[in-house]
Design brief:
The chain is of the alpha+beta class. The two termini are 30 Å apart. Strand 11 and strand 12 form a beta hairpin. The strands form 4 sheets. It has a 4-stranded antiparallel β-sheet with strand order 1-10-3-8, with no helix packed on it. The longest helix has 26 residues. The C terminus is likely disordered. It is globular and about 50 Å long. Helix 2 crosses helix 4 and helix 3 packs across helix 4. The protein has 4 helices and 12 strands, in the order ββββββαββββαααββ.
Length: 242
């Protein structure tokens, strides 16, 4: 559902800062929804699209949230299984099934965050966080996805490396990554360069540090033969616990 913002509708909470996808204007992906659901309805575990962050404001009723951080150092939620490229997610068919089978285990899992958001309260979902939501009453909420400066690198990496999973753009946007980087280069070139530097460090930083350490050196074996060596370290995911 397309919602208009303004003083007579609603306004974006200032605490979340600027939404960098705003530079795309009418070409930005879908990002605002009015969510209405009966008691015990909700959504099973998922991550928000395009590595965006989100805020959810409850207008009526209350919602139970259970969330897990976006980091390779933390496990996925119990009962949730992903394909290697994370494009496909397998989980129980219903919220009730997951609650019965896995809720107790999930609450004891490292990184788990849970709570209830009541009418008039706003919850922040950081980029890449898993979350499941249950309406405890008949509920009405507004939610909006956005790209904060802190998670710009996550969105850039997603648009570039997971183009087959990008969603919400109109069909006339042929290359969302190119469109976004071109607009960023015009309006926020320093932020774009910093994000690219952050991506480079996240993907290659550990390896480069090791290579610097052993650059132009060799290790002697017991037989006095010299050999070059190095190690390949896997980089953590771009998004970690804030």
């Amino acid at each position: 559902m397309k919602l208009q913002t303004g003083s007579t509708k609603y306004w974006t909470p200032e605490c979340f800062g600027e939404d960098l996808f705003a530079i795309l204007g009418d070409q930005r992906p879908e990002n605002r929804w009015l969510i209405i659901g009966p008691e015990r309805s909700g959504s099973t575990f998922h991550k928000d699209p395009n590595a965006t962050s989100a805020w959810n404001a409850v207008l009526r009723g209350s919602k139970y949230w259970i969330m897990f951080p976006a980091s390779s150092s933390y496990p996925a939620p119990p009962g949730v299984f992903m394909s290697e490229d994370q494009s496909e997610v397998t989980s129980p068919l219903s919220i009730a099934e997951w609650l019965i089978e896995f809720h107790a285990e999930a609450r004891e899992t490292r990184g788990c965050k849970e709570g209830v958001c009541h009418s008039g309260e706003v919850l922040h979902v950081p980029s890449g966080w898993w979350h499941l939501v249950v309406n405890l009453d008949e509920s009405i909420a507004i939610t909006q996805n956005f790209v904060p400066v802190a998670h710009l690198r996550n969105v850039l990496a997603f648009l570039k490396d997971k183009s087959d999973q990008v969603s919400g753009f109109d069909d006339d946007v042929g290359d969302p990554y190119q469109l976004f980087t071109q607009r960023m280069e015009k309006k926020y070139p320093a932020l774009l360069r910093q994000a690219f530097d952050d991506i480079n460090v996240a993907q290659n930083g550990r390896k480069r540090k090791w290579e610097d350490l052993v650059k132009d050196k060799s290790v002697k074996s017991n037989s006095s033969r010299s050999m070059d060596f190095g190690f390949e370290f896997g980089a953590d995911e771009a998004s970690d616990v804030e």
